[in-house]
Amino acid sequence: MNAAATTQHTNCLRCGRKLTSIKSTATGYGPTCTRKVKAAAATHTASFKPALVAKAQELIEQGGIVPLRALRIFTVISSDGASTYKTAPQACTCPAGLKGRFVCYHRIAAHIVAAA
Ligand SMILES: [Zn+2]
Ligand SMILES: [Zn+2]
């Protein structure tokens, strides 16, 4: 077992149902929620930069964004895996988010999961 292996999820991050497939335990979303998240990513992200939306989707697929409270506040893992930030669709505690100059991909990921 690789010590650097990604977290295995036992329950869906979105609806809390038990996850059974290997793919689901890796991403943290069951098949239904994966479909909903994909649909939300396709329909709710028109106002964001496509490159950031792609990074946001990657973050979601890696289970790198975890709902803390009622799909309104999330914990996200930084791209180097060294830090975690608190993210909501309106704000993020990452360096880019605190500067507030643009919408970071964490916020876009929060936006997608909240809209799914
Ligand atoms: Zn689910
Ligand atoms: Zn951020």
Task: Furnish the topology, listing elements before pairings.
Layout: H1 22-27, H2 31-43, H3 50-61, E1 65-69, E2 73-77, E3 84-88, E4 91-92, H4 95-99, H5 105-115
Antiparallel strand pairs: 1-2, 2-3, 3-4
Bound molecules: zinc ion (2 copies).
Detailed description of the structure:
- The protein has one domain (22-115).
- Helices cover 41% and strands 15% of the residues.
- The protein contains five helices and four strands; from the N terminus they run H-H-H-E-E-E-E-H-H.
- Helix 2 packs across helix 5 (105-115) and helix 3 (50-61) packs across helix 5 (105-115).
- 32% of the residues are buried.
- Residues 1-5 have low confidence and may be disordered.
- The structure holds zinc ion (ZN) (2 copies).
Number of domains: 1
How many strands appear in the DSSP assignment? 4
C-alpha geometry: globular
- Secondary-structure element string: HHHEEEEHH
Structural class: alpha+beta
Q: Which small-molecule ligands are present, each listed once?
A: zinc ion
Percent of residues in beta strands?
5-15%
The largest sheet, given as strand count, sense and whether it forms a barrel, is: 4 strands, antiparallel
Tell me roughly what share of residues is in helical segments.
40-55%
Mean pLDDT comes to 89
